[in-house]
Amino acid sequence: MILTRLLPASVVGLILFFLAFPIVVVAIVSFSEATYLTFPPPAFGLRWYQAYFSSADWLKPTWVSLWVAAAVVVLATFLGTLAALGVSRLSRPMRIFATGLILSPMIVPGIVVAIGIYYAYSRYGLVGTPIAMVLAHTCLAVPFVVTSVTASLAGLDPRLEQASLSLGATPGATFWQVTLPLIRPGVLVGALFAFITSFDELIVALFISGTGAVTLPRRMWDDLRFQIDPTIAAVSTLTIVLTAALMGCAHILRKRNQA
Amino acid sequence: MSEITQPSPIAVPLGAPRPLLLNWRRYVPLLLVAPLLIYMLVLYALPVLAMLLRSLNDPTWTLSHYAALFEDVVFMKTFWITFNTSITVTLGCLILGYPVALGLVRAKTMAPLILVIILLPFWTSVLVRSYAWMVLLGRHGLVNEGLIALGMIDRPIRILNTPLATQIAMIHILLPYMILPIANALRQIDPSLIRAASGLGATPFMTFRQVILPLSMSGVAAGTLLTFVLALGFYITPAMVGGPRDITLSMLIAQQVDQLNWAYAATLSAVLLATALAILAAARHLPGVGNAFKTSMR
């Protein structure tokens, strides 16, 4: 009642329109038949998707991005889940140090992280290798795994683990048969976030992907310097669909976990 | 330890000390965290620190790089542009974000749809969203065509590659970071307080001004700080849609690295990082902010 008098729904609607519209426009432009960027498109078709799928210049960076992101998921989920299991039981000063270090990539400006990594990695000849991309992206992805797994551990009833131990299960068996199944949604959400973090990452890639490990965002960035042809709209739409689908999964998993 | 004193596991009464096992177990948490800590120290923290050190030891130990900043016109201008942009963007996000947060919390059947509209751009990469604004704001973009069709302008005006384009795109990108903490704070307000206020004769505006707004301030503070700190570090968006001369601190840093001017790049990085950390450190002492931060980051 207060809302309806004070805040016309139209105002909220307009702001939501502002949020959604640019993304909708990119999706529409990607189905244009025009050879240049124009809106509304004179005709609709899949020519820019064909252009993308038939161009090695686009497909190669796509595979690099997918492989790097997949490796990041494995590494970040493993290291992050282990750390999340230990971090709450550390002594206080150690816990503050560990959480500060692990979560800091969320706060430290991207450019500072990127040039720091570039500065050190270039000394060891890592720049331009997919391995460098995996190593660097894992640092950026790990905070999401740790926060996600920590959240599901916080919702875990400690009596379940105690019951398992007192019934004679070894700590290892307790972890595999009791703890892990219960925190699995949190681990999965963390893995999804890790994938997207790496797949969408640009600033670090600008500095260390070189010519040997050009990722998809890096390829889009390079292309945008010269032209904004609708191929990028097609690529953008595909990445929007992919990330939205994965994030949607993460969102549903998390909601189900909380319920 | 001899075989005789070694107690058999079955004979140990519950709660009795088991020295060997206990000592080993004390280090389990540390052993679990250690791989990640070592990984992040070696591959992220030490590289960043080594880079930052160049601001102090290039060519010998000196503070001259920092002292020089005070007379550095380029730095002063860049810092001002960065700060100014961040303030404008944060204010824009606050003005646009608060009504949406209210709408989201009060909506019933529409709530999932509103949430999707907020989260969809949130999940889209900064690069793609900046590209979307290039499409919209370009010379023959939808905004120019629309304004011409409406008769508000005669020929295309320059919006892309101006500070205005940066501000619009950054507000678009950062808006969810403002909406979600505010919505969180609003959701925690006890509805009986609102009913009590209107039951006692408060007009809707008075209820908002005296009950809802004060109780949502922790979310407003968290959203404002988060948005501002993130805005300070923006690089991709201003580089893509901003004016050629409106360089942010992040862009200046990247430029200096390209010219292998590491000492200067490191000094600027230290200033950028210190500014962000100082704002967050100050914010931690505001009541309710810490909590709101935690929930909004998830």
Show the helix and strand layout.
The complex is a heterodimer of chains A (259) and B (298).
Chain A: H1 2-6, H2 9-30, H3 47-53, H4 56-87, H5 92-103, H6 110-123, H7 130-154, H8 158-166, H9 171-200, H10 203-208, H11 216-226, H12 230-258
Helix pairs in contact in A: 2-12, 3-12, 4-7, 4-9, 4-11, 7-9, 8-9, 9-12
Chain B: H1 19-26, H2 28-53, H3 64-69, H4 73-106, H5 111-123, H6 126-137, H7 142-149, H8 163-187, H9 191-199, H10 204-215, H11 217-232, H12 236-241, H13 249-258, H14 262-283, H15 289-297
Helix pairs in contact in B: 4-8, 4-11, 5-8, 6-8, 8-11, 8-15, 9-10, 11-14, 11-15, 13-14
Kindly describe this structure.
The complex is a heterodimer of chains A (259) and B (298). With 259 residues, chain A is mainly alpha-helical. Chain A has helices at 2-6, 9-30, 47-53, 56-87, 92-103, 110-123, 130-154, 158-166, 171-200, 203-208, 216-226, 230-258. Chain A has a single domain (57-258), classed as Orthogonal Bundle (MetI-like fold), CATH 1.10.3720. Chain B has 15 helices and no strands. Chain B has helices spanning 19-26, 28-53, 64-69, 73-106, 111-123, 126-137, 142-149, 163-187, 191-199, 204-215, 217-232, 236-241, 249-258, 262-283, 289-297. The longest helix of chain B is centred in the first third of the chain and has 34 residues, at 73-106. The radius of gyration of chain B is 27 Å and the shape is globular. The two termini of chain B are 49 Å apart. The interface between A and B is large, with 83 and 83 residues.
